[in-house]
Specification:
By secondary structure, the chain is α+β, with helices and mostly antiparallel strands. The chain has three helices and 14 strands. It has a domain of 194 residues: Thrombin, subunit H, CATH 2.40.10.120. 31% of the residues lie in helices and 24% in strands. Strands 1-2-3-6-5-4 form a six-stranded antiparallel beta barrel. It has a six-stranded antiparallel sheet with strand order 11-10-7-8-9-12. Strands 13-14 form a two-stranded antiparallel sheet. A hairpin with a 2-residue loop joins strand 8 and strand 9. The longest helix has 90 residues. The termini are far apart.
Length: 322
């Protein structure tokens, strides 16, 4: 019996593509690389869409980060402005507090300056009505004092002064009495009348239209501790002033500690408003004793007892007595 030889089938030959040597192309390329123009176009379009989408995503993320950064910057700026405003407020408050403390510390100096301004005003307002009086006493020694205008018309002026200053001139024969104002020449005056117990005298100056110093009203009355100012007709500004405090007030006059030197006797004692509240004297002693530190000021109403004619008993608008 003849035998038949069984042979395995021949392997199927793969169709080759591509290379010149006939090598077979990989299977993944056949799956990924399109075989037609439409496929290539589809891949390009997909890539473009993907790129555009990626760009949109990246831009959106950029915008998100930018907005977040701008928000942080805006919050910082707003917070900074608030902190800046608060800092300015704190600095201003600290400045005001420091100013208040400085003003408090400078208060004594301001008070001194205010007093200096008051003194300057007193001198400035009183000077046109003030005169320095010069004569001799009974022994031929100089006797000085001050006088001030209490009334004036077109021809002459009435001046009140201290009897102590012109005492020798009340006798006959007696020395001449002269007055001068500031740097003006001396003028001879007449001692018209006097009241020794009040240390008052009235002299007539042959010059008219001079300003007078007004008398302070009785109400409100002076109070203890109130400031007063004694004015002299001797000074570079036409007058000088000595400040003092009221120690007592009575019908006899006021007690005060303003320094009354010889040049001040007979001059007015003024309040802070520049009104006459008393007349300065070194000799007036209603209690029959004198002091060196505290002086008695003669009440202005005493002028109406003898040396002046006072309507209604008030020195305002008074004329010559006797």
């Amino acid at each position: 019996m003849a035998t038949t030889e069984v042979r395995p089938p021949k392997p199927r030959r793969e169709r080759t593509r591509g290379g010149a040597n006939g090598a077979a192309a990989p299977r993944w390329r056949e799956r990924l690389v399109p075989k037609t123009v439409m496929g290539v176009t589809a891949i390009v379009l997909a890539a473009a869409v993907g790129a555009a989408f990626s760009g949109v995503v990246l831009y959106s993320y950029y915008e998100y980060r930018l907005n977040k950064t701008e928000t942080k910057v805006a919050d910082f700026i707003n917070g900074f402005q608030g902190k800046y405003n608060q800092a300015v407020t704190d600095i201003t408050n600290a400045q005001n507090n420091a100013k208040s403390e400085i003003d408090k510390e400078l208060e004594p100096l301001k008070k001194s300056k205010a007093e200096g301004d008051v003194l300057g005003t007193i001198v400035k307002n009183a000077a046109p009505s003030m005169f320095f009086v010069r004569t001799l006493d009974e022994a031929g020694a100089p006797s000085v004092g001050s006088a001030w205008v209490v009334a004036s018309d077109s021809n002459q002026s009435l001046l009140v002064t201290s009897y102590t200053t012109v005492r020798a001139a009340t006798r006959r024969p007696g020395p001449d009495v002269f007055v001068h104002q500031g740097n003006d020449d001396e003028v001879k005056v007449t001692v018209f009348t006097w009241q020794e117990e009040r240390d008052l005298a009235l002299i007539i100056l042959p010059q008219g239209n001079l300003p007078k110093i007004d008398i302070a009203p009785k109400d409100p009355p002076l109070t203890i501790g109130e400031r007063v100012f004694a004015v002299s007709g001797l000074g570079g500004a036409g007058a000088s002033v000595a400040e003092g405090l009221v120690a007592d007030v009575s019908s006899a006059g006021i007690q005060h500690d303003a320094a009354i030197g010889p040049a001040f006797q007979g001059g007015p004692i003024l309040d802070s408003n520049g009104k006459v509240v008393a007349i300065a004297s070194r000799a007036y002693a209603p209690l029959n004793f004198g002091t060196d530190a505290v002086f008695f000021g003669i009440p202005p109403q005493a002028m109406c007892e003898k040396i002046l004619k006072c309507p209604n008993g008030s020195p305002t608008g008074a004329g010559a007595g006797r």
